[in-house]
Design brief:
The chain has 488 residues and is an all-alpha fold. The chain has two domains: 3-144, no CATH class; 160-485, Orthogonal Bundle (Neurolysin, domain 3), CATH 1.10.1370. It contains 20 helices and three strands. The protein has helices spanning 3-30, 37-55, 58-66, 72-90, 93-116, 119-141, 146-151, 160-182, 196-209, 245-263, 280-294, 298-312, 319-326, 340-359, 367-379, 405-424, 428-433, 438-447, 457-465, 472-485; strands at residues 219-221, 227-230, 233-238. It has a three-stranded mixed sheet with strand order 1-3-2, sandwiched between helices. A hairpin with a 2-residue loop joins β2 and β3. The chain starts with a helix and ends with a helix.
Length: 488
């Protein structure tokens, strides 16, 4: 066997163990008894130690030096493994294990603090997480910028400066659109109560409509919806609110976008670096285009209105008004429940705060005040309780610093993909009106999803669209859609 073959066999085993570790995280979020948290932290730390040792093993470096790629696929596989090896050899094994153990504990502490509205109970363990992640970032940066190094875990090839410039270009148009909407006649939402069983029934219908393969996945409930796994075991979660069924429905469609990306990757890439989404920004482009450009379109909303009427009976909103109710722009605290127009402003807030935490210009003790001050400045009203403020997201408790900006990158990429999709797919509105997104999801599978990690993130989008990604298509889409809805 060649060095390349030896390396790929070894990598498949490492990837399989990584999937097992991921399943432990899924179980912690969905099924695990609360009293099991301390033991689970030890288990996660042990798995991280094993995975770190495998990823940084000297033989990996030897195989990488000796391997001779013969194809585009082999070249891409080696590039991913090289990046993983370089990262693993820079981070001490005991630090990697400690981060895993502490973040597993912190996740449980965050959930309890969020439920009891007690920021003070969470800040000590968050301080540990921040200190450990700064240490990790310093090891990865090697005299470079700590936050820059951390972004590479989620969106390889982009820098803090590029993200900042992108957000600086986006913010004025977003703020202007929000201001114009606030000055217009407002759209009505929906009222009433919607039982959980009915929401789950429609959630399952939505997942099936968008192509989620239940034979290789499942849907459970979690505090913070997420997607987990790859290949032939991809699991998603959703949540329900008796008075807000859209929270359930669009959380499901969003996570199905992530899941279908993983399920639709070329099966020959399974348990290899190419067998997962290439970056979190590209991943988010799939969840956001499923959720927003497709799922919140006028055509698809007509179909969804029929599903809700069938399950819940007459709920007081006619078909014509339903599209506006789904896309209502309104004041709110929660990022995951935000409308399309204000969503990126929520992300920009988190980006600035986590960047300051990692760069040492914001202390954890001052986080709540900094969040509340920034939120009121950006959105015009005060945070009423911690679960609506700095305790609402799970990300920092589990050490995902550098992740937040990829949400907006995903929106930008989705805007480009939608422009190409409407160019290439005839009668898209007709199929969506029949509750059949398959012409769109088939296009995404063929042009993007099946390729997994074959190409770099921006190259993945450019290859699918036929043009380099920019923020303009997203901003134009938002202006056109919401100007029509609000008669601006």
């Amino acid at each position: 066997m060649s060095a390349y073959d030896d390396l790929m066999n070894y990598t498949r085993t490492t990837s399989a163990l990584g999937q097992v570790a991921g399943r432990l995280g899924w179980d912690q979020e969905t099924m695990m008894a609360r009293g099991s948290a301390a033991q689970r932290s030890e288990e996660m730390g042990a798995m991280t130690t094993i995975l770190h040792a495998r990823r940084s093993a000297p033989e990996v470096g030897d195989w990488l030096a000796a391997a001779q790629p013969a194809t585009e696929v082999e070249t891409a596989q080696l590039a991913h493994i090289q990046r993983s090896y370089d990262r693993a050899t820079k981070v001490p094994a005991d630090l990697a294990a400690e981060i895993s153990t502490v973040t597993s504990t912190a996740q449980g502490t965050w959930a309890e603090a969020r439920a009891s509205e007690d920021v003070a109970a969470f800040l000590p363990v968050l301080s540990q997480v921040v200190a450990l992640k700064r240490e990790e970032g310093s090891a990865l940066a090697e005299d470079g910028a700590v936050y820059d190094a951390m972004i590479q875990d989620y969106e390889p090839g982009i820098s803090e400066a590029e993200i900042t410039q992108l957000f600086d270009r986006m913010r004025p148009r977003l703020v202007s659109l929000v201001d114009r909407i606030k000055g217009a006649d407002q759209l009505a939402g929906i009222t009433g109560t919607f039982d959980e069983a009915g929401q789950i029934e429609i959630s399952n219908r939505l997942a099936a409509a968008f192509g989620y393969d239940f034979n290789r996945g499942r849907i459970d409930k979690a505090v913070h919806p997420f997607s987990s796994g790859s290949g032939n075991d991809v699991r998603i979660t959703t949540r329900t609110s008796e008075t807000d069924p859209f929270n359930c429905f669009y959380s499901t469609v969003h996570e199905v976008g992530h899941a279908c990306y993983e399920q639709n990757i070329d099966q020959t890439y399974g348990l290899t670096p190419l067998g997962s989404g290439v970056s979190m920004g590209v991943h988010e482009s799939q969840s956001r285009i499923y959720e927003n450009q497709l799922g919140r379109s006028a055509a698809f909303c007509g179909w969804l209105h029929g599903q809700m009427t069938e399950v819940f009976g007459d709920f007081g909103v006619n078909r014509d008004a339903f599209y506006g109710a789904v896309n209502q722009v309104k004041s709110g605290f929660i990022r995951t429940e935000s409308d399309e127009v204000q969503y990126n402003l929520h992300v920009m807030l988190r980006y600035d705060l986590e960047r300051d935490l990692m760069n040492g210009t914001l202390d954890v003790a001052d986080l709540e005040e900094a969040w509340n001050t920034r939120f009121e400045a950006d959105f015009g009203f005060a945070v009423d309780r911690p679960s609506n403020g700095c305790l609402q997201d799970v990300h920092w408790s589990v050490g995902l610093f550098g992740y937040f900006p990829t949400y907006s990158l995903g929106n930008v990429y989705a805007g480009n993909l939608y422009q190409a999709l409407t160019r290439d797919v005839p009668d898209l509105a007709g199929s969506l009106g029949r509750g059949d997104p398959s012409p769109a999801t088939d296009w995404l599978r063929e042009n993007l999803q099946q390729h997994g990690g074959l190409r770099a993130p921006t190259q993945t989008i450019e290859t699918a669209c036929g043009f380099a990604p920019t923020e303009a298509p997203l901003l134009d889409y938002l202006d056109e859609k919401f100007s029509a809805l609000y008669r601006l």
